[in-house]
Amino acid sequence: MEALLGNERLKTGLTAAFASGKLSHCYLLAGPPGSGKHTLAKILTAAMECTQGARRPCGSCLQCRKVLDGVHPDVITVDDPAKKTVTVEMIRKARADVYIKPNEGLRKVYIIPRAMDMNPAAQNALLKVIEEPPEYAAFLLLTEGAERLLPTIRSRCVPLQLSPLTEAQGMEALKQRFPEKEREQLREAWTRSEGFLGQAIQLLREGESLPPETLRFADCFARRDKLGLTELLVPLERWKREPLIALLNQWVELLSQALAVRAGQPGRWEAAQRIGRSRTSAESLKALRSLRRAAELLQGNVSPGAVCGALQVWLDITD
Ligand SMILES: [Zn+2]
Fold it and tell me: If you measure from the C-alpha of residue 66 to the centroid of ligand 1, how many angstroms do you get, rounded to a whole number?
């Protein structure tokens, strides 16, 4: 249970349920990306499979270890990352499987990591089984927002809403994970994560792979920060042609990922997910075209100074 930081109220309630063994057969774990849904799902699953009675989840019995290592044969993930939605076929497959008794565990646990991506047909198919499941079956539905599921589904689940961490909790966790990083860097990632540790961690990891200019651009564009964007573009006027073209192409890639996010696909970079959440497809597309045009002009021998100046006008992000 210590693996899940913060969320004290939630944990107190669950600890009582674990000790008494009174676990529901259907939970709805809700929270934004990086809020701890997957960690909580592991804890719940371990508690369901643990053989150590009131000490569950003990974390050390064979059943707990298999759950925590992700190799328990009775823990089934219902998803196909290649598909845009969680389809009715996936749910039907799980529904057929649920009547086969557990291999070795006390329960059979079905985890639906993108429950919000179930279309109504899939949700109705799921409803049939959570209305009257075999007594050993359990379902964990993970979603970014509970409102994205049908009321009939929600009413049959125990809701577990994840909350943001306090700054003290978040900064402490980040310091442990990234001892080599400056406090300021950690604080910046923390502020941008809106209190969800997983997002801050992803930002810091990305900071190691994406250049600071790209992260700044994503930030300014997502927040419609025109002044920030100008401050970013002015020094770029002195850049050499080739690295500037490479940078602008990376921004194009960022915005095309943001467009994919708007279309319901996962964005590879967290920065793209943020843009996808805060800017419309039309806005991102307009900026993407401007950046492409700027890169073309650079190829065609227009000077970096002129191109960056033009970009300040084209990327008028306040409207
Ligand atoms: Zn155990």
Answer: 10
- From ligand 1's centre to the CA of 133, what distance in Å? 24
Chain CA centroid to CA 184, Å: 24
* Ligand 1 midpoint to CA 159 (Å): 24
Residue 188 C-alpha to ligand 1 middle, in angstroms? 38
Tell me how far the alpha carbon of residue 231 lies from the centroid of ligand 1, in angstroms.
55
Residue 318 has pLDDT above 60, yes or no: no
Instruction: Give the CA angle between residues 127, 138, 131 to the nearest 5°.
Output: 25
Structure token digits, residue 191: 């502020």
pLDDT tens-digit profile of 263-310? Answer: 887 777 888 988 998 999 999 999 999 999 999 999 888 999 999 999
Is pLDDT of 138 > 60? yes
CA 37 – CA 40 distance, rounded (Å): 5
- Count CA atoms closer than 13 A to 3's CA, side-chain side: 15
Q: How far is CA 108 from CA 58, 67, 138, 218, in A?
A: 19, 12, 6, 42
What phi, psi does 58 have (nearest 5°)? -75, -25
Gap from CA of 53 to ligand 1 centroid (Å): 8
pLDDT at position 265, please? 78
Phi-psi region of 229 (alpha: psi -120 to 50; beta: other; left: phi over 0): alpha
At residue 166, the pLDDT reads 95
Q: Which residue has the tokens 């600071």?
A: 212
Strand partners, 160: 29
Average pLDDT over residues 88-101: 95
Distance (angstroms) between ligand 1 centre and the Cα of 55 equals 8
**204 compared with 72, residue with greater pLDDT:** 72
Cα dihedral across residues 40, 45, 50, 54: positive or negative? positive
Q: What is the mean pLDDT of residues 82-99?
A: 92
The domain covering 8-161 belongs, at the CATH homologous superfamily level, to P-loop containing nucleotide triphosphate hydrolases (3.40.50.300)
Distance between Cα 71 and ligand 1 center (Å): 14
All structural domains of the chain with their residue ranges: 8-161, 210-314
